[in-house]
Q: What sequence folds into this?
């Protein structure tokens, strides 16, 4: 049975958006991480669809790298590094913006992304997958940014950063059929090292500070 | 894309002389990194890093002579490229890399004697140092803008790692803020870079087919044809994104923390040359954007960000208490001046911007080095507690004074020369409001610097560290010989470049202004 392309595109787009909302809705580190893992698996699938459509072998390679690094290596790394961290630092008990309001704002950001893409890029000749994925990628970008500024926990900021990176990756792949593979690998390596360094920093901070609460990071300022 | 890769490897097998030199200048710090990792010995690590610094300087001078004689050249199948503009950013990286390595021997050695760091820390420090120099060298040598982005993001990661060397709360807080803010900024920049590349693919199928759509040379060549709607958004993304990393206000919030908390030699690299790398990226895209949109809109944006940076820096400098944070805010000011100069444009504007990039990269490390030696001696960074440096450490005190006066824009030092040229271009181009605001802010900053500098240098010696008798301080001999040598090199340059601009540098800047001419048709 042949499944039409447009349905695969729509399904994956919905999956990506739902997993992003998963990060917004959940309060625990395990919750964010599993949402991120689902998102990365769907992202690898979407990348494979684009690879199939365009026929570039580099994009298949990028899809496999995404699956391995983002869906397996990074979540495991984060779990193993934060094992010794107390549970109360892994729960977003009291975010700056309440979860209910966050959901509303995130929905508005998704609408904004669709509006932006249709305003600016619709005149240019874009493939059908680009038209489906570009608004989704911007949504991921904006919602990730919103998660980073609206949450108190340092771990939540890391997950927000990872969602931004996923959005960027989808944006790049959908718009320009991927920049060359060497550059993709470089970007992935930067992300991986970035996660390692932030995990190391988190571990140090958990030993020095009383919490990962961003409010405790306010000693450096000019008065 | 596969064919470019093969072509790149082919070029690697039978390259021309200059292309080989581009590769070896990158391989030198990489080799130093490997050697430091293998020996794991403090003394060896110092020697290897200083030696690698000398080699990088020699090779860079070779590359510069190549640029002057040949104009430009590329390597690795077009991934790497060097022209006069890139060379102007490359020279300070190599030079400051070398003097910072020299200074590290004294400064980190002193930290070791004081028990702040141990052998393991120092090996990690020199590993990070070489890696940091490597990633910075890659920025002006990249033609592929994706590669440049990877290099700039890598500089963030390495420098965060180096700030984390100290495990106090302040350092960790600064490292975290820097990591998060700079990474968000660079994500925006990547979005912009991809949009530029997309705009280029749509008008140039040949670039798309050969995979060179991300190359700066290809974008600059096509700049007149690109879709203005896309380029407008893309340039704003790049300006905000790389502007964050360049410390332009209002995206500068991470900078005073990171530059203030890093080990002093690293602060000198962060302020003196890493900011140049980021503003260099902004300017590359400024050239493309002003080709597509005309110079008016991009220039206006640069002027606004420039004035905002100078404004925020002036207030923060005037009321500052911490010596290193004051120097950090001064970097925000000087990046603002560069941005303003580019916004003013015209031959003198671009000339002044490029000269100012070089001048700031000489004067700011000098000041960081001197202040680092002072804060080690006085055991504090709080300026109110530091008095009479000229009496307790005569050489360092004199260097601190010269560096401070130079950075505040006092004639006859180098910063004054380029600031004067920026003002000339502003008033010459009819930008009277922006020019007058710049003069006003320069006066406030000058007053702010003198207000802090004069009591620190003169006055009767006082400070927490000074009270301890000399016999009880381990290894107290002023700043240390390698550090004095490092500062000596810089202070000679500060004075010489204040008197005139040497012929080779002038040629280089003239050629780099021609690169700007590709975008702005007014030159």
A:
């Amino acid at each position: 049975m042949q499944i039409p392309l447009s349905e695969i595109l729509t399904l994956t787009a919905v999956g990506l958006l739902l997993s992003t909302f998963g990060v917004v809705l959940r309060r625990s580190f395990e919750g964010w991480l599993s949402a991120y893992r689902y998102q990365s698996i769907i992202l690898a699938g979407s990348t494979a669809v684009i690879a199939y459509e365009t026929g570039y072998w580099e994009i298949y390679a990028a899809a496999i790298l995404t699956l391995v690094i983002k869906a397996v290596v990074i979540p495991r790394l984060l779990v193993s590094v934060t094992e010794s961290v107390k549970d109360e630092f892994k729960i977003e008990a009291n975010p700056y913006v309440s979860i209910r309001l966050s959901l509303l704002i995130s929905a508005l950001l998704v609408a904004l992304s669709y509006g932006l893409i249709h305003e600016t890029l619709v005149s240019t000749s874009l493939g059908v997958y680009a038209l489906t994925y570009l608004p989704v990628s911007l949504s991921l970008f904006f919602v990730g940014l919103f998660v980073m500024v609206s949450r108190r926990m340092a771990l939540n900021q890391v997950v927000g950063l990872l969602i931004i990176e996923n959005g960027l990756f989808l944006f790049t792949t959908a718009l320009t059929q991927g920049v060359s593979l060497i550059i993709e690998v470089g970007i992935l390596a930067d992300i991986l090292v970035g996660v390692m360094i932030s995990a190391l920093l988190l571990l140090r901070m958990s030993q020095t500070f009383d919490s990962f609460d961003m409010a405790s990071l306010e000693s450096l300022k000019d008065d | 894309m596969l064919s470019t890769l093969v072509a790149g490897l082919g070029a690697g097998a039978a390259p021309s002389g200059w292309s080989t030199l581009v590769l070896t200048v990158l391989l030198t710090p990489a080799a130093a990194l490997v050697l430091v990792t293998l020996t794991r010995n403090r003394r060896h690590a110092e020697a290897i890093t200083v030696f690698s610094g000398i080699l990088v300087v020699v090779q860079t001078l070779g590359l510069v002579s190549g640029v002057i004689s040949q104009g430009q050249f590329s390597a690795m199948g077009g991934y790497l490229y060097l022209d006069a503009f890139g060379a102007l950013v490359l020279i300070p990286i190599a030079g400051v890399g070398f003097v910072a390595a020299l200074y590290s021997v004294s400064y980190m050695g002193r930290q070791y004697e004081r028990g702040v760091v141990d052998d393991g820390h120092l090996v990690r420090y020199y590993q990070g140092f070489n890696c940091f120099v490597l990633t910075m060298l890659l920025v002006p040598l990249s033609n592929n803008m994706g590669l440049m982005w990877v290099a700039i993001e890598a500089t963030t990661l390495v420098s965060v790692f180096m700030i984390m060397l100290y495990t106090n709360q302040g350092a960790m807080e600064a490292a975290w803020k820097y990591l998060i803010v700079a990474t968000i900024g660079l994500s925006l920049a990547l979005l912009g870079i991809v949009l530029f590349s997309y705009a280029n693919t749509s008008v140039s199928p040949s670039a798309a087919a050969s995979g060179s759509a991300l190359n700066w040379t290809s974008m600059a060549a096509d700049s007149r044809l690109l879709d203005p709607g896309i380029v407008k958004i893309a340039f704003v993304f790049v300006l905000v994104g790389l502007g964050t990393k360049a410390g332009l206000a209002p995206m500068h919030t991470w900078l005073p923390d990171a530059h203030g908390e890093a080990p002093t030699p690293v602060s000198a690299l962060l302020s003196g040359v890493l900011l140049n790398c980021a503003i260099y990226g902004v300017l590359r895209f400024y050239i493309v954007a002003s080709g597509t949109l005309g110079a008016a809109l991009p220039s206006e944006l640069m002027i606004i960000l420039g004035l905002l940076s100078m404004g925020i820096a002036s207030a923060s400098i005037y009321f500052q208490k911490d010596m290193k944070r004051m120097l950090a805010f001064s970097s925000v000011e000087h990046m603002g001046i560069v941005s303003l100069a580019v916004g003013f444009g015209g031959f003198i504007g671009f000339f002044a911007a490029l000269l100012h990039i070089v001048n700031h990269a000489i004067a700011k490390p000098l000041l960081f080095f001197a202040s680092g030696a002072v804060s080690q001696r006085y055991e504090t960074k709080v300026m109110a507690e530091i008095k009479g440096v000229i009496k307790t450490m005569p050489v360092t005190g004199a260097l601190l004074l010269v560096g401070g006066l130079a950075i505040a824009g006092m004639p006859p030092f180098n910063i004054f020369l380029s600031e004067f040229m920026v003002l000339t271009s502003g008033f010459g181009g009819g930008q009277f409001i922006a020019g007058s605001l710049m003069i006003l802010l320069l006066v406030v900053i000058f007053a702010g610097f003198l207000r802090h500098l004069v009591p620190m240098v003169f006055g009767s010696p006082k400070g927490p560290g000074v009270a301890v008798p000399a016999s009880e301080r381990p290894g107290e001999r002023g700043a240390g010989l390698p550090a004095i040598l490092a500062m000596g090199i810089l202070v000679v340059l500060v004075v010489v470049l204040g008197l005139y601009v040497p012929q080779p540098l002038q040629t280089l800047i003239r050629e780099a202004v021609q690169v700007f001419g590709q975008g702005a048709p007014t030159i």
In short: Chain A touches chain B through 44 residues (CB under 8 Å). Helices of chain A lie at 5-25, 29-54, 57-81, 99-120, 128-150, 154-176, 181-208.
